[in-house]
Amino acid sequence: MTWFLKRKESIVDVVNLIAGILLFVAPWVLGYAAERTAAWTSWASGVVVAAMALIALARFAEWEEWVEGALGAWMILSPWAIGFTTISMAMYAHIVLGFVVLVAAIGEIRWLHMHHGATAA
């Protein structure tokens, strides 16, 4: 059972790692690297999400999923909070990838509590 738990946790963390990498490269790929506010938000958010995913892959703890969930929510809200809703590609990248990170974190936390209660930090 613990092998399955570790494997399932790793899949979610790999998804978050990929989302972080995609957000980091989005300014270049989607053409908004010249838009400083949107680009820097992508780069910073991407690095933090990817770093949290790597930390979780190295040693899983439930608190990491809570942080990832908060990061996902931030990514969704950042176009309005920082003011780059007029840059549609940046806005959609943040919303879509933020939604992926948020849903993955919520799913992981819910799954953990349903299958073996709260985990130790």
What would you note in describing this structure?
The protein has 121 residues and is mainly α. It has one domain. It contains 4 helices and no strands. Helix 1 runs antiparallel to helix 2 (36-58), helix 2 (36-58) packs antiparallel against helix 3 (62-83) and helix 3 (62-83) runs antiparallel to helix 4. It is elongated, with a radius of gyration of 15 Å. It starts with a helix and ends in a 5-residue tail after the last helix. The model is unreliable at 1-5 (pLDDT under 50).
Radius of gyration over C-alpha positions, nearest whole angstrom: 15 Å
**Average of pLDDT:** 86
Helix content: over 70%
- Calculate the terminal CA-CA distance, rounded to whole Å: 19 Å
Task: Provide a count of the helices.
Answer: 4
The SSE order reads HHHH
Please describe the biggest sheet, giving its number of strands, its sense, and whether it closes into a barrel. none
What overall form do the CA principal axes indicate? elongated
SS-derived structural category = mainly alpha
Strand elements, count? 0
Number of domains: 1
Strand % is under 5%
**Uncertain spans, ≥5 residues at pLDDT below 50?**
1-5
